[in-house]
Every structure is written in C-alpha cells, then in structure tokens.
C-alpha cells in the first residue's frame, strides 16, 4: 500500500474534497537536521480577530532575514525537488528548525505586546480577550509534534475545512512568500450527541484575514473547532482593500499536536 494511502487511512483527509485541484500532493520525507538561528522577535504584536473567539494574528512574527533562513532550511530538506511534490508531513520528532520555530511561537505568545505583562497570557485562565492560548495548551510538552509544509503555486489554495479531531486544540500557521487572504466561515453545530450535523441558521458570512509573509495565525477554542478556514487563490477571490493581490508562490507551515492515544 502506498504511504500516502496509508496515512490517509490513519489520519483521514485534512480538508473537504469538493475541489481536489486545490489540494497539494503529499510527499513523505526523510528529515535532514538543519540548524537555524533563533526566530524569536522582540515583543511581537498580536491582533485579536474580534469576530472569532480564539483567533489571533501576529503580522510581525518573522523578519525578512528570518523568513529567508526558514525557507532555506525547508529547501535543504529536499522535499520539493519534483514539481508534483508540494506537501510534506512530519510526525513525532521534528527537525531542528521546526523545533526552534515551535519554541519561537511559544515565546511570541508569552512576550507579545497585546497585554501589559507577559505572564498574563499564561495565567488568565479563560479570559478570551487577553489570552492567546489557555495555559494547559501553552505549557504542554511537546508544544507541537506534527508539521505540514505546503508550497502553493499561483492559483493553488486549500478548501474550507476544520482540522481533524485527531489533533489537539491550539494550531499555528506560519505564512511565507506571497501574501494571501484566508477566509473563515462558521460550521454547522451538531444536533445533540448523535454526531449528525444539524441546521442552526449560523451566519454564512466569511471573515477575511490578511496573511502577509512572516505572519503567524493562532487558532484555539471556537476558532479551531467551530470555524472552517480556506484559501481560494483563483482569479477574483484574493481581494484586500478593494485590490486584487498579485499571486506568487506561497509557502505555509502548519504546526499541530496529535491527541494522545488512550
């Protein structure tokens, strides 16, 4: 059985299958450890997306130099030497640069300037407006143990989806190269405990979030479980402030943590 098929049977599909042309092709990978410099930015700025609880955006997470270093580390892995290979996954032990990226995300949460004192983020315990991550997620070990790296050519994106329940709460997405607009839309609530989806007249409005190169998106709680996210990079869909974004190659790095098997 092909490894791609095996992984799909174990972990399922990462997104809706209504538009397969927007899904990247998976390539399994052998990791070559690549040392990298610390990626931590001093006092990064966080913006709370007020329409969606648990959705935060840090536009100045990585400097231009740090972005170049990160892209270089990814390139050295040798995952994308063939045009048909535009997605790579790693579970468990992460390469050095991904471990450092994970640590930098934790530091950005702790030392971001959206609250008056750094440790408020770890101790606010449920204050959605001042806490980027609940303390049980912020201090879990490992912070992340699964990464997906996607390389999107102009016009390629990803369909609306909620990440699989096989992953814990707290998901981070780092954007590199071309800017884009990610849209969020509410999912239908489950009817009772029978697992069937029910209609509940939720708003069909899509919330746009502008992702620049070097930005970081953090999703937890409502944003992680009750909102779909998508990137449609077909002509006419990538609009921001009345202007269409010039689409070039985009690289994204998603970090998640697998649920523990009981």
UniProtKB/TrEMBL annotation:
InterPro entries: AlkB-like, AlkB-like_sf, ALKBH7-like, Oxoglu/Fe-dep_dioxygenase_dom. It comes from the Eukaryota. GO terms for biological process: DNA damage response; fatty acid metabolic process. One of its GO terms (cellular component) is mitochondrial matrix. Coiled coil: none annotated. Residues 143-259 form the Fe2OG dioxygenase domain. Residues 1-11 have a biased composition (Basic and acidic residues). Pfam families: 2OG-FeII_Oxy_2 (PF13532). Belongs to the alkB family. This is Fe2OG dioxygenase domain-containing protein. The lineage of its organism: Eukaryota, Viridiplantae, Streptophyta, Embryophyta, Tracheophyta.
């Amino acid at each position: 059985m092909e490894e791609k098929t095996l992984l799909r049977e174990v972990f399922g599909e990462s997104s809706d299958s209504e538009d397969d042309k927007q899904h990247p092709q998976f390539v399994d990978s052998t990791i070559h450890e690549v040392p990298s410099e610390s990626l931590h930015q001093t006092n990064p700025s966080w913006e709370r997306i007020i329409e969606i609880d648990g959705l935060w955006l840090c536009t100045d997470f990585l400097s231009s130099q740090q972005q170049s270093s990160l892209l270089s580390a990814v390139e050295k892995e040798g995952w994308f030497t063939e045009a048909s290979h535009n997605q790579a996954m790693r579970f468990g032990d992460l390469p050095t640069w991904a471990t450092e990226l994970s640590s930098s995300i934790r530091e950005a949460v702790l030392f971001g300037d959206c609250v008056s004192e750094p440790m408020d983020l770890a101790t606010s315990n449920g204050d959605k407006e001042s806490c980027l991550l609940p303390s049980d997620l912020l201090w879990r070990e490992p912070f992340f143990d699964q990464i997906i790296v996607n390389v999107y050519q102009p016009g390629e994106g990803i369909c609306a989806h909620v990440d699989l329940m096989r992953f814990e709460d707290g998901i981070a997405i780092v954007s590199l190269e071309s800017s884009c607009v990610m849209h969020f839309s509410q999912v239908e609530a489950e009817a009772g405990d029978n697992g069937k989806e029910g209609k509940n007249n939720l708003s069909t409005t899509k919330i746009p979030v502008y992702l620049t190169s070097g930005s970081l998106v953090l999703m937890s709680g409502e944003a992680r479980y009750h909102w779909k996210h998508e990137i449609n990079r077909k002509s006419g869909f990538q609009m921001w402030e009345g202007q269409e974004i010039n689409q070039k190659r985009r690289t994204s790095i998603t970090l998640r943590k697998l649920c523990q098997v009981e």
